[in-house]
Every structure is written in C-alpha cells, then in structure tokens.
Design brief:
This protein is of the alpha+beta class and 324 residues long. The chain has helices at residues 11-15, 44-60, 91-94, 97-110, 144-157, 177-182, 217-233, and strands at residues 5-6, 30-31, 36-38, 65-69, 115-119, 135-137, 162-164, 239-241, 252-258, 261-272, 276-277, 286-290, 299-303, 308-309, 312-323. A hairpin with an 8-residue loop joins β12 and β13 (299-303). The longest helix is centred in the first third of the chain and has 17 residues, at 44-60. The protein is elongated and about 70 Å long. The N and C termini lie far apart (48 Å).
C-alpha cells in the first residue's frame, strides 16, 4: 500500500481533486519515484479514502496486514490546498503522523494481530511515525552490515518492535541468512519459481552480477535450513539487548534474550581465536554454549565469572547460551 499518493489522471483524483497537496506555487507536489501526486495527509477526504481502503483490504478481502511503502511517507511539503482545512500550510507536516495513526488504528481494530509494516524505501524513517507501526524493515539495504545497523537503530527506538530484515537477496552474497537470524530479524526472500521473470534484471551484488532469484533444488535445501532455524528459535520475538557497540566493539556483536537463554551473534570477515566477551551473564553461574546453526551443534561450557570464548570463524558465529 502506497498511502498519500495517487497517479495523475486516476479515478480518485478525477472524482476528488480536492485531495491533492498543493505547493506554494499552487501545483501538486510530485513524487518522482512513484510518478504520483501527493495526497494532502490531513485533508479529511484523504483520511476517509485511506481508512476505507484499509477496511477493504483487511475487513473485506481478509488480508492479515499491510506494507506501507514509499520514501514519500517520511515528510511532505507544506500544503496550500484550501480544502485541507489547515490554519497554516506547515500544519500538514506537523500533523502528518495522524494519517498513519488512522491506518494503524483501523487495521488493528479489524484484526488485533494485523501487521503494519512501514518501509521508507532506503531512507531513515521519520521518528514521529514509529508509534503507528509494529514492524520495521531494513528497507532496501545495500549490504549485510546495513541490515544489522538498522536493526540496532530500530531496537533503540522500540525494543519490542518486530524487524523484517528485507529479502535475503539484498544481503552480502544474496544469501546471508545468518545476518537476518542472528540479529533477531524476520527472514525474507523474493525467490521465484518455477522460473525467473525474464523482464526483470536487477543488480544488487558488488561484482555487478544480476541476482538470480530462482529457487533451485540446491537453494531450497539451504532455505529450508535457515527458515527451519528461524521457526525453531523465533529470535524475532526475543528481547534485543544493547550490550555491544557497533563503532568500538570488534568483532561486531549482537545479543538477544529469550526464554531464559541468551543468543549471541558475532560478525567479522575472519576471526582467529581472540577472546570475545559474552556480556550479560551472571558471574555465579556456569553456562552451556551451543553453536546452534552448525550441523554438528558443537557445545562447550564456560563460567559466568570468566565470560570469554575464543572461537575461530569466517563471516559469522551464532551461539545459544544456557545456564546450567
């Protein structure tokens, strides 16, 4: 769903031209990427039209959630449309979160479990919109590091908010499920089956190769492993803890508490056995450490009074830590 936007010449603008946001030159504000016009976000006609759509999608058609999409959702220009009923043009910007509150409240009133995802398309989100969403998204990341960085930022804003790590094809190598899982993200993919769309060729890889979205038998085995791990551990429902700093701690570390256990994820190009501190453990307890993403699920014990491990790994190291 692309709220507060409508293509020029479409039915809604023909029937309700008063919904258009007008700039100080009295022309519609244009959204270049979407080739659309802004709808005035606080105009009562816009609000009714938008909430009626939500009722149709979730109430009538039975969808369980919405993806709100578009960088234009972050902020509009001041609105000079006299039909908006504003005291001054900049009121449209100040009250812009109201349209997203209306969407969120309507969706959740129809289904209390409805997902409302807000994707600002590669941009940093408008902080004032975050109360009116329950799933953040990596929103068109260009690397695994960016996926992890955005997770940490959203966790700082709202630790309980679900985080969709976007489709894995946007991660390093187009297959970095370890980044998605280890940070407590919701896994995703844009795989195609039984064949790729021949008209869509999008380059997301650093080496200028085109991503192959086709779900091959080999890729299916790999996907089943990581989706299986996600379903088994459900780290996306755990508590993300701010125990490691992205700017100063090496290797990069993330920690999640869930069901009395701790889950740590460390990331580096290569790590050769130097000590890593497992923060957040109790000094008087002993702990079992399990490499839960490896086939052999290797385990060992450490003491909370000396919470250090010395693994060697490439790219990632994900572990479950349970008190004995």
């Amino acid at each position: 769903m692309g709220p507060i936007a409508a293509d020029p010449g479409t039915k809604v603008l023909r029937e309700h031209p008063e919904m258009k946001l007008l700039t100080d030159e009295w022309v519609p504000e244009y959204i270049s990427w979407w080739d659309s016009y802004y709808l005035s976000p606080v105009n009562p006609h816009t609000q009714k039209y938008t909430t009626d759509l939500v009722k149709k999608f979730i109430g009538d058609w039975g969808f369980d959630g919405l993806k709100l999409d578009g960088q234009h959702m972050n902020l509009c220009e001041p609105d000079h449309n006299e039909h908006s009923g504003l005291e001054y043009p900049a009121e449209a910007q100040e009250r812009m979160p109201e349209i997203f509150k209306a969407i969120y409240d309507t969706a959740r009133s129809l289904k209390e479990y409805a997902v409302v995802q807000f994707c600002p398309c590669g941009c940093a989100i408008n902080f004032f919109h975050t109360p009116y969403m329950n799933q953040a998204v990596a929103s068109d990341p260009t690397s695994s590091a960016q996926i992890r960085m955005k997770r940490k930022a959203y966790a700082a804003i709202n630790p309980k908010m679900a985080y969709y790590a976007d489709h894995v094809e946007l991660s390093d190598g187009a297959d970095d499920f370890a980044t998605q899982l280890g940070i407590g993200g919701v896994l995703g993919s844009k795989f195609t089956w039984p064949k790729n769309n021949p008209n869509v060729k999008v380059n997301y890889l650093d080496n200028d190769e085109v991503v192959d979205y086709l779900l091959t038998p080999e890729k299916e085995v790999y996907f089943k492993k990581w989706v299986g791990l996600y379903n088994e551990y459900m780290l996306s429902t755990g508590d993300y803890l701010n125990l490691y700093d992205l700017g100063f701690d090496v290797p990069e570390g993330h920690a999640i508490a869930k069901d009395g256990k701790m889950y740590y994820a460390f990331y580096a190009e290569e790590w050769q056995g130097e000590p890593i501190e497992l923060r957040g453990l109790e000094a008087e307890k002993s702990y079992k450490v399990t490499e839960y993403t490896t086939d052999e699920k290797k385990s060992y014990t450490i003491e909370g009074s000396n919470p250090y491990i010395s693994p060697s790994f490439k790219l990632n190291y994900l572990i479950e830590v349970e008190a004995l």
